[in-house]
Structure formats: structure tokens, C-alpha cells
TrEMBL record:
A Pfam family matched in the record: SIMPL
Keywords, comma-separated and alphabetical: Cytoplasm, Nucleus
Localisation: Cytoplasm; Nucleus
InterPro entries: IRAK1BP1, SIMPL/DUF541
The family this protein is said to belong to: Belongs to the IRAK1BP1 family.
Cytoplasm recorded as keyword: yes
Protein name as catalogued: Interleukin-1 receptor-associated kinase 1-binding protein 1
Chain positions covered by the region annotation Disordered: 201-222
Keyword Nucleus applies: yes
Length: 255
């Protein structure tokens, strides 16, 4: 995965009379000083942690198709490559691939008595079925001067950011449930959140499992499934949350 994992530190603004102090420069404590008319609840809080790990399958596949030719003249080599490129682009259009997802590059080289031309078509698919269909058609219809490489799978940046956020939110929800159960066990009610801090955020892609599913299988289909599994993205989040503790009878009055 590219990019450094995000870290979140959020604290709600204190109510009137509330103060923060930093002791040891390592732990953050909150000292509550409620108005005189309010019941004394200073220092009543529960501190918990929550963790979550989520995964997401790749949602993009990049297919690279290369064309090569060697001819005695520039016109001959250009025409040879152009005919094959046009067939490839036509196959993409028939499968409703947008032009913005297609990149074509060409390189011409001069030899001693001939010309070499290489062209590459790079296509980003979001429809894996269409990708496989295009690949099969090109392998079947075109000669050995055209090479279709195995697809490369990945998760789009938007999907990766969404996965990170979902992992953080799920970790906070896990901490909230834990704090509520603790308060219930103590005969108290869970109050407002005082501090939410994401202490660790990690992300990585899947790795092949020794002896796992697909081990010992052969063929292109097994290789394709393995590529998808290796490109599966994982995100984990570990959070620290502090909640105010309220007496149950006070909580009832507020409702």
C-alpha cells in the first residue's frame, strides 16, 4: 500500500468550567469542575480501548497488451502494428471500456537493416468479467506478435480511504460497547465521550498462505484467484476512548 496511514486525534470542546491538564506529557487527564447547581460527578470516567480489522477485495484490474513487429521499412512496420492496435481498441469499445481508462504508447527503433516497433495498451477495468472476456478474445484472435499479460489487481484510492475510515469507526463502536457493558455491570450509565484517540492505524495487502486454499492447484484460473487474494487490502485501527460515567437515576431524568 502507498501512503502513510492516517492517525486521528479528536477531543470534544469542554463545557463551561471544564479544564484539561497534561501530566507526565504521556497521559491526558480531564478534570471536571461542574457548576455548583449540578450534581458532583468530577473525575467519574471510564477509559477503554477498541480494535478492528477489516478487508476489501480489489476493485480494479489493469490489463497490459503489447504488440511488436519488425519490418524492412517504416511504413510496413507502422501499418503492421496499427492494424493490430485497431483490433484491440475495437474489442475494448465492444466491451464498453471508456477511452479515459485506456493508455496507448508506441516506440520505434531503427536496426541495421530493419525497423522495430513496439506498442502497449494499458487498460484499467472495474468489471472483471469484461476484462477476462477481452483477454480471451485477443488471445484467441491475434497471433504471437500480440502478448496479453496477466492482469494486475488493486484497490482504488477512494475504496482504500473508505476502508480506513470504516476500520476506525468500527474500533470506536467496539470501545463504546465495551464501556457501556462496564457501566452496566457497575450499575451506572454511560455518559458523553470525553476523548477519542486513534493510537494505531495499519494497512497491508494479503500474502499467499502456505498450504492454504488453492495450494497445489494448477492453471490460469488458480493463478487469477491467487492474484486477487494477494491484492486484497486490509486495514486495522486501535483507538483509546474515555467516557463520562453518570448515575442511572440522573440518566433517567434527562430522558
Amino acid at each position: 500500500m502507498t501512503g502513510s496511514p492516517s492517525r486521528v486525534f479528536a477531543a470534544l470542546m469542554p463545557a463551561g468550567g471544564d479544564t484539561f491538564r497534561d501530566e507526565n506529557q504521556t497521559n491526558l487527564f480531564r478534570a471536571l469542575q461542574p457548576p455548583a447547581c449540578e450534581a458532583q460527578t468530577s473525575g467519574r470516567e471510564v477509559q477503554v480501548t477498541g480494535s478492528c480489522e477489516l478487508s476489501a477485495l480489489p476493485d480494479r484490474a489493469t490489463l497490459c497488451i503489447s504488440v511488436s513487429s519488425n519490418k524492412d521499412s517504416v511504413n510496413d512496420v507502422t501499418n503492421s502494428v496499427s492494424r493490430r492496435l485497431e483490433y484491440i481498441l475495437q474489442a475494448l469499445r465492444q466491451h464498453e471500456v471508456k477511452g479515459e481508462n485506456t493508455t496507448v504508447t508506441k516506440v520505434l527503433r531503427r536496426g541495421d537493416n530493419s525497423y522495430d516497433m513496439e506498442a502497449e495498451v494499458s487498460v484499467v477495468f472495474t468489471d472483471f468479467t469484461a476484462m477476462q472476456s477481452v483477454s480471451n478474445v485477443l488471445v484467441e484472435k491475434l497471433d504471437r506478435t500480440v502478448t496479453v499479460s496477466p492482469p494486475s489487481f488493486s484497490l482504488s484510492p477512494d475504496s482504500l480511504n473508505k476502508l480506513r475510515r470504516q476500520a476506525c469507526l468500527a474500533a470506536v463502536e467496539s470501545a463504546r460497547r465495551k464501556a457501556r457493558e462496564v457501566c452496566g455491570m457497575l450499575g451506572q450509565a454511560l455518559g458523553r465521550p470525553l476523548l477519542v484517540k486513534e493510537e494505531e492505524a495499519r494497512e497491508w495487502t494479503g500474502q499467499p498462505e502456505e498450504g492454504g486454499a488453492g495450494a497445489g492447484q494448477r492453471g490460469a484460473l488458480a493463478s487469477l484467484q491467487d492474484s486477487v487474494r494477494k491484492a486484497t487490502a486490509f486495514a486495522s485501527s486501535h483507538v483509546y476512548v474515555s467516557f463520562e460515567i453518570r448515575p442511572k437515576d440522573r440518566a433517567r431524568k434527562k430522558h
